[in-house]
Amino acid sequence: QKSERFTSTLRIATAKRIGFANNEGADIKEKVEFRIVLKSDVAGSLEAIKKSLKEIENEEISIKIISEGVGPISESDITLARATGAEVYGFRIKQLAAAKKIAETEGVMVKTFDIIYKLIDDAKATLSVKLPPEIIEEELGKMTVSAIFRDDRKGFVFGGRILSGKFNLNSEVKVLQNDNEKYRAKIITLRHEKEEVKECQAGSECGAGLPAYAKVAVGDTVIAFKTIVKERTVD
Question: How many Å apart are CA 221 and CA 142, to the nearest integer?
């Protein structure tokens, strides 16, 4: 039986945030920590910088001042940074020659600034790199399973009508039963009216092949999606 044909305007599906890489879920248990050895020209500048750094912190981010002081960056500052995995931030000061040599040898990052907001911007940029990316699943199509055509060690084939969006060959799909996800895979074959195709759109009936013994049943909902990895920044 031929599928019912009608014109369907594809709409951009909503994107679903599913968590962060290596840390699924909305709640992040471990904070991203940035350790700093902080040196400044005067105590007033030191306090202003500490206050600005504190304002960056949130439920995900922690800035830990390992050591602070007034005066040039010394050998002991570099040694401490090396031992604690910290970076050295200096404000309107110089780095002693001996300290510079040790920093280069030990691979300790030393940064100096003349303007406070530039120091803060650098801290934000460093933290942005440390933040795990956000993982978003963008829905591309939805189908209801109406028949199972094959279920053996050579493969699994089901048929259904596409309710919205579209399905492509090699699309990632997830299978839901009563709104509960039970299976994920990639479409390995796609047919429409017995013809192999690369794409099926809303309103059409199609058959889709999955790996052998796929966990799919009549009445299940199959969602085609793509995964988006979104880098995040500290504002």
Answer: 7
